[in-house]
Amino acid sequence: MDLRLLIEWSIKSIVIILIILGGFAYLTLYERRANARIQTRIGPNRAGPWGLLQPIADAIKLIFKEELIPEKSDKVLFVLAPVITVVPALILLAVIPMGPDILGINIGLADGINVGVLYIMAVASIAVYGIVIAGWASNNKYALLGGLRATAQMVSYELSLALAFVGPILLANTLNIREIVVAQKGLWFVILQPLGFLIYFIAGVAEVNRAPFDMPEAEQELIAGYHVEYSGLKFALFFMAEYGKMIVISFIGATLFLGGYWGPFVDQAPLLGPIYLFAKVIVLLFVLIWIRATFPRIRYDRLMAFGWKIMLPAALFNVVITAAIVLLVGG
Amino acid sequence: MRKNPLEFLRGLWTTFRSMFERPVTYQYPEIKRPVRERFRGRHELKRYDNGLEKCIGCALCAAACPADAIFVEAAENNDEARYSPGERYASTYEINLLRCIFCGYCEDACPTEAIVLEHNYEVSFTERRQAIYTKERLLVPVPENGRQTPMKVSPGSFDRAIPEMEDPK
After folding, report:
1. Degrees (nearest 5) of the Cα angle A9, A15, A16?
2. What is the domain partition of chain A in residue ranges?
């Protein structure tokens, strides 16, 4: 492997990780401000101009908090769990095409790999382990219940999520995410796949354990669910994983259904590509926050019933219809 | 139960609309929301117009206090060094604001309307000692044209502890 490629990849990896880390910090502020506006409040506006230093203040606070490890916890797993949870969120962005080639340089990290969608599915599933292990290792009944709920919920909704991916794959006839984006140049897949996008979005919300599907951390019943025993930086890692996955879900949704980096004049000015992509991500993130501010948490049995009895059949139906039409029209 | 999925959209529309309402937040340290007239904040010990203290040290407030937050000790007045009308005045008057529940019973019990719960609600402490408000901190400043207590008065002019009652105006 030549040195130039190594340096290029290192820089791209660092940038992608910084997108998630910085995005996570400012997503918390974005969410608090947007939530506050929805509740006709103002939100944090004291730390720096418009509260822009609030995430930094939060980070400093969390760093100086005491790191508590419960006496009877499984210490190795207890420390390992937040890491297992956060790493998938950090590396998922690797296969997202950030924009068209700028001056002949591809600005995505590994967006050209021929199993991109499969990579997303595989890596996203790993995060479940972190949550289950956290619930188990804490040696706390609330944490265990939260972990169990998280497993059941994420396994159920992952099926629908995977089936929602099949729509764009069939339409673009490839697993390569860059080619899927290229195939959306004229027409975004959300227009051909409205049901698929809806299923993807609902399953995505459930997958990142956001309200109204935040059963694993239901404050009123489980205190905080699987991360009840975590404090300080380890808690921050779980937080980072949740918000990082929100960003990733928005990136994947924008890429597979909303045309990725495509927008007006991208052909002439390729630098607009990443800007369009980020704009789409910010809109999707707003929808996630908006949904959280609107809907109450749904009951656990209804969550499972909804996942298995409505989402899965609908996703299967969508796959069959898409496949039939692609076959008939000749894709 | 209504099972129309469009109701979800209606809910989303409601929250979206509320984003464009004016925030109800007061930017507190800069802008203070005025309290109601009958708001019960920190106590004040009032004075008459001539500067004499209204409190006569009867300790009825301490007796009425359900939280046992008030401590009063009385001493004798005389015309050479007069603090309040009548025989006695409060030589010590302390309210422990950590105990006080701001019920206002002391206000009701006071025969001379000396103690009043005013509108100051910014009573925070960094230390327990600071929570005990002594007489010096509770007493309002001497009004205009009044004199500082203890004052020398002509004999027999302020023998009556309770002011003359008037018909309500």
Report:
1. 90
2. 3-329
Asked if residue A164 lies in contact with residue A318, where contact means CB atoms within 8 angstroms, the answer is yes
Residue B73: what are its φ and ψ, rounded to 5°?
-130, 130
> pTM score > 0.80 for this model?
no
pLDDT at B60: 92
Q: Return d(Cα A67, Cα A231) in angstroms, integer.
A: 6
Instruction: Report residue A43 CA to chain centroid gap.
Output: 24
Whether the CB of B28 is below 8 Å from some CB of chain A: the reply is no
Across the interface, which of A38, A291, A295 has its CB nearest the CB of B18?
A38
What domains does chain B contain, in order, with CATH numbers?
48-150 (3.30.70.3270)
Q: What pLDDT score does B44 carry?
A: 92
Owner of token pair 């001493």? B75
Considering only the beta carbons, identify the residue of A37, A42, A294 that sits closest to B11: A294
Q: Tell me the per-residue pLDDT of A272-287, one tens digit each, with 9 for 90 and over.
A: 778 888 888 899 999 9
Of the candidates A186, A171, A168, A158, which has an alpha carbon nearest to the alpha carbon of residue A117?
Answer: A168
Which of the residues in chain A have pLDDT under 50? none
Cα Rg of chain B (Å, integer): 24
